[in-house]
Structures are given as structure tokens and as C-alpha cells.
Amino acid sequence: MKKLIIENLRKRFKKKAVLDDINLQITEGTIHGLIGENGVGKSTLMKVLTNLTKKDNGNIILKGYDEDVSIKGVIEEPSLYPFLNALQHLHYYASLFKYSPSNTEVDRILQLVNLYEERFKKVKNYSLGMKKKLSLAQVFLLSPNILTLDEPFNGLDLKTSIKVKNHLRHMKNNGSIIIISSHILSDMSDICDNVSLLKRGKIVYNHTKNHVYVDKFKMETSQTEETLKILEELYVDYKVDINKITLNCNLKKLSWVLKELDYKTIHLYSLINHKKDLEEMFIEYNHIKDPEK
């Protein structure tokens, strides 16, 4: 299986450690998200991966890839040629990488990002959102093995955002590694398989979509006092509001609770599972003590 392996990656600007001992492994066919406040190193990590910035220390290993591996990205503000139109721009961009796409292929990519009707307009007359669409069209045209996208949905209309997400899923299913940074956590939760939270240049938490860190289980019973006694005996964290009890525990501990309630013939009116979403995870982990410098 092909992998992107990042080992002990460090980058400093003057005396500030922007990336401080980053370790990460991403397998092919994965969309990996980077979240965190501004200035924590997300864009710098992407620049290092795409050779726009040199690392100070550490290793970037492309396991299983040959020498022709393609790594492309859209990072920060799009860098475009103002006096070319979209068609000219894409053909010229592709030529820089010795690729000659057909007109049909270029048209298909422009339709993907909803820019086909504006294909003859010069880029200098594009809005910021249109420029974002064109910058995405550039990298989609080349179908890279590894793709880094910094705030890819910022400035996109809803229709285009949905089409871009579907295309990223298509690339993922064809084996690409896609790394996305975004402040729109609902988009990240929707599309990413794994998410890393960065704080002061370090990865402080890794979240996998299929991994349940902590669940909130809400139960309702008329036998509140007896239930609370059992929870205390099993060392379960809980909050109570009249006859409604909220448990903070994983599935394994919940099964112990339910067995004990059944043994004591305590009846539940309802039991509702509420998984923490990515926004709740971000709020919780972004308030942990800053990692040591």
C-alpha cells in the first residue's frame, strides 16, 4: 500500500518554530484534514509537501511511489496570469508539466468547477471566487497522486462546492491522497476520513471518522436515585436533570451500565446516543494546555 510518511518534520522562521516535530502517515485513497487556528502551521506544512518551502529537519517518505509521483497544491491566494482566459490558462499550465490535454478534457474540468460559461473571459476580470475555481481546475486537470488544498471551499458557491467535493471523493477512490485545510468544520466532517488538529506547530490530536472517542448517552428513567448509585459504583461521568441523565462514556462502559440496570430491574424510558461532532472535538481539544515549546 502506498503511503505518505512524515517523520519529525521541523520548520522555523527566524526564532519561531512553525512546524515542531510533525509525525503523520496517510495512506493512498484517503482525504486527510488539517484544522487549527490561524498561524499554527497548516499552510506551511502544505508548502513543505509541495516543495514551495524547504524543511529544516525531518523526513518526507513516499512509500510505494515511483519517481514520477505527482504532488500538486492550491495554497493561499491563487497565482494566475491576468491576461489569459481560462482556456488559455489551463493549456499553458498543463504545458509546464509537459502535458497536452484535449479540448474535451479542458472543457470537462471547466464544467466541473462551473467556469465553462466564463472560459473566454480574461482572468483579470474574474472575481475571487472565479479565481478559486480556476486554481482548482488547474490541479484537477493534472490528476496528481498527492493533492494539497488550502481552504478549497472558501469563496465557492454551494453548487460548485458540492461538485468539488464529489470530484475529491472520485480522486480518493482512484487512490489519490488529498490533504485539506479548512476552517469550515462541517465541510471537513463531511469529506475527510481523518483529521489532525494543530496547535503551536504540533499535532495535538488525530481524529478518525470511524473512531468514537467519547459518546454522550442520554437516558430517561423514573428510578433516578437507583440509577445514579449504579453509575457512581461503575465510575461513570454523568449529569442529571430531574429524571433525564446524560452519560459521558464509551460503548464498552455503556454495556456494563445496561447490564447492571437490567440486573437491578431498573427500567429505561429512552436511551439516545449523541456522538460528538468535529466542532465539539475542536472546541474541547483546542482548549487543552499548549504543547511544550
Task: Describe the protein's topology.
Blueprint: E1 3-13, E2 16-27, E3 30-35, H1 42-49, E4 57-63, E5 71-74, H2 86-96, H3 103-112, H4 128-142, E6 146-150, H5 158-173, E7 177-181, H6 185-191, E8 194-199, E9 202-208, E10 215-220, H7 224-233, E11 237-241, E12 244-249, H8 251-263, E13 270-275, H9 278-285
Parallel strand pairs: 3-7, 3-8, 5-6, 6-7
Antiparallel strand pairs: 1-2, 1-4, 8-9, 10-12, 10-13, 11-12
Helix pairs in contact: 2-4, 3-4
Q: Could you say what the CATH topology of the largest domain is called?
A: Rossmann fold
User: Radius of gyration, Cα only, in angstroms?
Assistant: 24 Å
Strand content: 25-35%
End-to-end Cα distance: 35 Å
CATH architecture of the largest domain: 3-Layer(aba) Sandwich
Number of strands: 13
Report low-confidence residues grouped into runs of 5 or more: none
